[in-house]
Amino acid sequence: MSKFYTFLKYFFIVFWAVFVVAPFLWALTTSFKDFQSVNGGVTYIPWVDFEPNLEGWKVLIKSPAKGGVDIVEPYFNSLFVTCTASLISIILGTLSAYALSRYTFKAGFVKNNDITFFFISQRIMPPIVLSIPFFLFLSSINLLDSLVGLIVVYIVLLMPIAVWIMVDFFNKVPREIDETALIDGCNPYQAFLKVVLPNSIPGLIVAGMFCIIFGWIDFFFAFILTFTEVQLLPVKIVALNSSVTPWWSLSASALVSVAPLIIVAFIVERYLSKGNLSGAIK
Amino acid sequence: MKIIKTCLTAVISSMMIFSPMAYADKWSDQFPHIKATGDIPGDCSYEEMSKKNYKGKTLKINTHAIPVMGEPTALHAEQFEKLTGAKVEVTHTPAGDLYSKAMVPFQAGQAPYDIVFGFSNFINDWKRYLAPVPKKYMNSTEMKDVTKSHMGVSSWDGTMYQYPVDGDRHYLKYRKDVIDNPEMQKKYKAETGKDLKVPTTWKEYAEMAKFFNGWDWDGDGELEYGSAEVMKKDDLMFAAFFSRSVAYAKNPRTPGGFFFDLETMKPNINNPGFVEALTDWVEATKYVPPGGINFGLGDEIGSFGGGQTLFSFSWDDAFIAAMQDDSPIKNKVGTAPLPGANKVWNRVSNSWENQYNQAPYIVWGWAVGVAKKSKVKDMAFDYLCFFSNGANHQADLAIGRFGVNPFKNSDFDPNIYINSMGWDPEIANSYTQTLLDMEKSQNRVFPLRVPGVFEFTSAVATGTSKALAGQLSPQEALDEVAKEWEAIVSRVGKKAVRDAYAVGVKMEDNQL
Amino acid sequence: MNFKHKYFFLFPGLFVLIGILIFPIIFVVRLSLSGWNSYNPGLDFIGIENYIRLFTDDPRFWESFFRLSFLSVTTVILQYVIGFALAHMVWKDIKFKRFFRVLFLVPMMTTPVIMTVIWRTFFHESLGPVNDILSNFGLSPKWLTDPALAKFTVIIVEVWQWTPFMFLLLLAGLLSLPKEPFLAAAIDGASPVRKFIYVTFPLMAPISIGAIIIRLIEASKIMDTVYVLTSGGPGTATETSSFYIFIKGLREFQMGYAASMSFTYLIIMIISLTIIAKVLTKLLLKE
Lengths: 282, 512, 287
Description:
The structure holds three protein chains of three kinds. By secondary structure, chain A is mainly α. Chain A has helices at 2-30, 35-39, 55-58, 72-102, 112-121, 127-140, 147-172, 175-183, 188-199, 201-216, 220-225, 233-238, 247-274, and strands spanning 106-107, 110-111. In chain A, strands 1-2 form a two-stranded antiparallel ribbon. In chain A, strand 1 (106-107) and strand 2 form a beta hairpin. Chain C has helices spanning 3-32, 49-56, 59-89, 97-105, 112-122, 129-134, 147-175, 180-188, 192-220, 224-229, 241-251, 255-285. The longest helix of chain C is centred in the N-terminal third of the chain and has 31 residues, at 59-89. Chain C is globular and about 70 Å long. Chains A and C meet through helix 1, helix 4, helix 5, helix 6 and helix 7 of A and helix 1, helix 3, helix 4, helix 5 and helix 7 of C.
């Protein structure tokens, strides 16, 4: 019986792995195609089915005057904005999450869970409608088309995630730890920094990862709130999307934009496995 | 004395003969883009631009994605920078977002871009934020070459708000290697009893498309199909629908409104003319390639341009793609005016008239405007004039992927296409003739350009796509659209819509 | 616990959030009471006309809500089940555990706007590999042009993209479970199935609820996928509320009306999510 389970397990995992990889493989071959190879019929293997060329990739570093979209600068802009906004969101969010986990708040009938819910509900609003108000808001403080302006907006988008994840993780860390630390003579801040935080590293990693991901993949706000000075990666890539969709360069750009996050995935996995997890309590 | 005079004359006259060539070479050396023609004299030629000094000033442009319009914008920006010392920043935006990218800042009172690209049917919505084209440019040599109908498309009631840089229209494209092929003609005649020729009505179009649907008729090992059309429910498919409708619904004997009756502002969109066209269109879902119902413009270009279908009928791009050097069907495609119909609806007498009717649809195309709040308007207009100057425009026309299509009288010379693009003379001639005929026709339809235009076209898109998907019958679908149109008119304000529509009707009734 | 400290912890985050958000939120409400659109920009005051129109004259909005519920609930359930299964499988020792863990995280990191373009080619009915391969078996499903199948295609893409989210959360949760209950179960000689039902699952309940709620919120905003794949089509088969709001807002530029739709959407979502959370809590934590 258990042999069957094992077989089933491997089968399912391999099936899902193939499902995950399939579009990437397709993107990879498509990135080496040109107009005729895409529209003439379905082609799979380079050199066998069609003549590969590097046009799809070259386009990513050529300047627009030569028909390309130079993604080097937007790449770094996106990295900078995403990391900064994530960092600030995590710091502020973790602090708030700690408070919501450990202390009781009561302002009228508004309790802890409601405040947490308030944080999370910021993510419900469809971005479209926030576009004009954010536009007006940033233009009134003269931060349109700037890295700082984008960071400000992204903090609002990402902090709720940080809060929610950290509240969950803090709830898992037993209060005895805090109390032990206090008894040992620490003030609450030290207790937080020296004792609770190190025990929540998996949570921080996960929260950090989600912040980075949601920040990196945002298209909408970057699109509405920037013009010529600042360009983020998704907006720049979409600049390729003219009437004749260039599948080849879009495929290449999709692969390129995933690359940095794969590094993040490795880091996250490592921390999860090592885990300062349950054992640390004792 | 005589010898000196002769020598002097010889020297001077040879200088005069050779100087235009020297004039041309000087610029085309520095700017290989115009090497075919050299700099062409004019108010905005390379020579003239080099005299301007915009050092220290910045020009900001928002244009379409690469390459259609995006690449020439960036290329001319680079050239402009070199000639005038200005700094030009260009951003690229996908077609569907050009409107919001320009309008959101405009409506918030800002003008982050000096120049905005868009489509010509934005004109009513964004003209209040644009600076009218100054007299100086209206009188320029370049502007005088623009055809009358394109001057009309760029203007509103006599004032030009959009600088002409491109011209667009819908026309029929077909595979010459099939339609003009004697063997295919024999086969078609034998099996259907009708002649295989360039279709002149939508019914003929459908018959031929169905006949050639689903088998390999060009021997390339792949299946081919009848027609590639824009059917995906996006911002462009309503134009494909209108192209199919004009023959049935634009009646030269009933002026005073095509989309609406100008007097009452009652929508015409669900009259039998339009319904007939929609019925044709639903029928078309049977002769498009697999997935054809989800074809956007890009898919249509890829499909026809890649040799997958017999016909196509929207913008120029599919034809230009088919005529590219690396296309397997280069010089195997032909052009013709949009099919007409053997009956046209008369909305006054409420009956069909059984006579042949055809009407070109001067559909909207790329348009560009200068923001009223721009601080560098002079430079902006100079750039736009430079963009479409003689040399640049001819060079742009020759590069299919740029998306620049004829709109000047001098563009209708077949030699341009024969020489620079390697087109077959017969094809080049039929292309320029087809386009010229559209300019000359008196029974034309212009795009709807009223306030809230996108609400109207969005309603059409939703309704017709429901019919295409089989959710509603053509009559039901168009009735729904008509009802929505009435609601929109009352929301926007009948007077506002009527006043705006009156301008369009003037153009259609040839009064402007 | 000293009073002062708790405010110090909570307030920086809360203040920043409210500070940045207060203007936009108030603006949206004000916008919904105006008739801002392309030919009439500016905040005029038309009272609750937008809301009246929404509730009496716009069946399309409510239809889209219905579709949205179907799509988001289906995708979230699928993502939860698959994500949990995957997390459970790579939790303990299997071959290449670390490779699989990283691999399964990757889809979430792609930009939806770009990745969906790839999916569009993938499912392209004449030029895509899926139908090409299937045609060898005589099948040629209309992935993007059949109203029912199109919904399914959207679900497939969403599941591909976001199952890693559930996977990651649940895996992190599993890895942080205390060892004691499992030791106890082993001593009791429990079978894998019993272990799962009585030990693993209940311990994972709190995090499951959180994950489901968050995924529901995010899934309801499905925009990029629908936009690129089908533009809400064929007909209106895949038109979700947020897509409809997008069309009304940024395509037709009826900003005032779009704001009223968004606000209504917000209220409905808050109510339904609160209900769902309470129901789930009751169900899963009662064990």
